[in-house]
TrEMBL record:
Keyword Signal: yes
Protein name: Mannosyl-glycoprotein endo-beta-n-acetylglucosaminidase
Keywords, sorted A to Z: Signal
Gene Ontology cellular-component annotations: cytosol
Lineage: Bacteria, Bacillati, Bacillota, Bacilli, Lactobacillales
Domain F5/8 type C: 797-943
Organism: Lactiplantibacillus pentosus DSM 20314
Amino acid sequence: MRIRRQRQIASTVALLIAALSLSACSSQQSSGKVSYRQTAEASLDKGMDNQPEAPYWFPNQLLKWQFSMDKQAKYNVATVPLAKRIDKWQLPTVNKTQDPKMKVVALSIMNASTSGNAPRGINTFDANVFSNWQYIDQLVYWGGSAGEGLIVPPTADVIDAAHKNGVPVLGTVFFPQVVSGGKLKWLNDFLKQDKDGHFPMADKLVAVAKAYGFDGWFINQETDPEVKSFDSAASGKNSQSTTKSGLTKKHAQLMQQLIKEYKQKAGSKLDLMWYDSMTKDGKMDWQNALTKENQSYLVDANMKPVADSMFLNFWWTKKRLASQDLLKKSRDRAEKLGLNPYNLFAGIDVQADGTSTPVRWDLFANQHNVPYTSLGLYAPNWTYTSSETPDEFQSKEETLWVNSHSDPSRSVPSKTSSQWPGVSTYAVEKSAITKQPFVTNFSLGNGYNYFIKGRKVSLRDWNNRSLQAINPTYRWMIDNPSGNDLKAAFDYTDAYDGGNDIQLSGQMRKNKTSTIKLYTTDIPFTTNTQVKVAAKATDKTQLDLVVTLKDGRKKTIKGDQALSSKWQTIDYDVSGLAKKTVKSISLSLTTSKSDTSYRAQLGRLAITGKPQASPTAVESVAIDSRVFDEEGKYAGVNLGWQAASTKHLDHYEIYQRNQNGSRSFLGATDTTNFYLNALERTGQQNETDLMVVPVDIWNQRGPASKVTTLKWPDNRKPKAAFTVDRTLASPGSTIKFTNTSSKNATSFKWQFTGAKQTSSTAKNPTVTYAKAGTYNVTLTAKNKDGQRSVTMKKLITITPKAKGALTVLSKNAKTSASGYTNSSEAPKMAVDGKLSTKWCATGKAPHTLTLDLGHQATVSAVKLAHAKAGGESADMNTKAWTIQVSTDGKHFKDVARTYDNTKATSLNTFAATTARYVRIVVDKPTQVADTAVRIYEMDVLGLNSPLK
């Protein structure tokens, strides 16, 4: 989702508004005895080198893994246990086609890549904050790639958000097709047995799920050397090669045995879902149904269970297979085998076309709209990845999950393959709201700002899906009488707590009541139960609570005050509901005047017992790790602390304590650690005080912890550095120097030996050299605290032989590397002159690529094309590397170093030197924690022969 540019505009507007409402200098707000200084928007949002990272493994790596030895492990543990949902058969259906028997699984790309993912987000808005959990029964955290890792547990924030809503989350075991880099070796490693015939991998899969707190695994096995093309197989063409396959019936048998052993050790708490791919004979032959070829992955020859469920491949709806009625046959076979047909998930791939995906829904359900199987959606994250704005994202979410009317009560059975019915047409809305306390601030888990009790305390972008609240069961069901036209949407411009609220807007007529149905519940009320709602409205509004009781009766409880234009908390006297069970929660709105542009905002709903004492202070706050950028301006800080001893704790808030005693909000979390990314140094301060504040379910804040102090490096004197566009040129050539000194430099002095202009005070001078020779360049950077200089000796070589463009010496050069993923990503692909191919190597850095130019030459520059140049994400661009040269291929010397590249293409220039071999050593392969290197082109530039 490309939202950054819009955010910058919104940020400018927000700052203007803030300037009108706050002190322009301090931006401080008081809340009781606490004074907040509004946190500025972050100027750096890339994760720093100590950012905790969610794990991913190749099979042999996981076999060696131990939680106790993994320094990152504690950051990846989910904190929210799986909530119990209301029994499906007790749930109300809101349209005539919903069927409680049918289930839904979503195979969703919750993070853009397998690697580099922070367990609980960082200071960016962009995140797939899926929130329609009420429509799914399981989430498969889709991930895995040949270039990063194959076994991928879900991130902690996704687990937390899902578990609040009662949704189990499965990690992914992904064996890719050979064309995508799959290797049979990885499958063999996965299926290894010990001397007693047991599968060590079964133990590891159980251990990982229990350690991190998720609910099982999805196995996708598609590695088969014989299968050339998934697309060819989809169209019915022969996808088999003439070479002998390495995939055998033995692989299939071992996989079934491993699944059985996993289930035996995991018990009923950990699931395993199998993807319809490999058959019982070890062939890659997608059945698109439950057949005799794949049923052995669900039940063995003795009718003993194997996997819990199966995701059926997508082609059951294709024209060439439609006449076979595969889902109906799958139901029949399942029932014959004594299996629940609703443990089969009919796959629909919506990654490319979303709600425009053609589907033969008449093959999914019978003439009475009763589904034959359950529903499986692959990549419903399309709603996020195809959207430009948050509003577009939420609109597509409603169309995909609800329907085109954004109202689940309006059943939309599809009459054509081009009409998307919406999942709510078939799936009942589920709920895990079964007890007190139930508190929601309607947070989606991200924001452009952060609010506390209606006050904007931070302009810093953020995402942390662990902080996502339980959002309305129904999106949206609003009963509007004649003359009223109230609509609902999530709104990021304001909030009571967190980053967003729910906005109700449209036309309202005086004394006409509109009612929004929010939640299905099963909450027993007691004599101590309290219900409070934080809200505001443009007009005076009576906001009443409407509940449905277990016996079907509806009760309306009047709010103790009318809404105004400021946030306020409405109390409801629910003493008359004591010892009764509330089955649904709605709010009704009645305005005191007619308004065509009415707006109300819902910020918090709390059903709790009476407030208890505020939380106790957090203890033992400590900095677990810290890193600084090269200039000492930004810090990445991992904080940890002991849990507050409070039964009803909701979350922790992290603050910077300012010199005047005010607080600047830095983030919030539901666990006892927090990664503070790109904390910006204020001026020349040497220390920053950090503290943690506990918050309970009643929104009461405990005392701040004792501060822990971050000490900054001394960066008062500026650092001098520069680059040059060319170091090898002919007489009369003009050469451009680019200043890359630290930002605290205020003035510069250049010295150029041999140039027409031997000195300059310009920031980025351009210099002409008239005579042949080799010349030094010196740059001095200055400020009030001092100066530093850098001299690059014999940097510039001027020779008549260097007239015009330098020669690309590396085209089709002989190559070697420390490793590569497969033959289609071999080292030679980096010198073939094409941006459609690349060298890619996985595993732990550093990675090396060596070019043999075939003869001694004069080299002076290396141009690199990184991931973005080849069409991949900019996050995959190579970050740090060293260029080395050699005359004999044995003894190399460093000639250039890059520490922090972000660009799609880069140019390293250095003093001209004689070399036959040129090597790149990549120590930071990507912008994130992904360890796979991707070089699309490596051009060595210079002259064909050595200079005398």
